[in-house]
Design a protein that fits this description.
The structure is a single chain. A five-stranded mixed β-sheet has the order 2-1-5-3-4. The protein is an alpha+beta fold.
Length: about 110
Amino acid sequence: MPKITVLPHHEICPEGIEVELEAGENLCKALLAKGIKIEHACEMSKACTTCHVVVRKGFNSLDEMDDIEADLLDRAWGLEPDSRLSCQVMLEDDDLTIEIPKYTLNHAKENH
């Protein structure tokens, strides 16, 4: 079971958190199931960038992103070389450390 470390985020996860998740799970769905209310305005249909995360540890263990995800990430706030859309990350056996960027391009938050 991979251990996922979410670094502190002022609003979503102020203290940070470590959770163990199952390999093969979708990162965004798994975080939501653990009570981490990451934004996901397009309902994980790969149409926005609100679930953008920066993978601080374990990036190279993830599957490569496809062209659609790469194109979307070009519009994400705070884009870094190790950025991914959490809705497109399937967890492997390796541990990850992720950071949720301070802002998104979402102008109106939904009540997810």
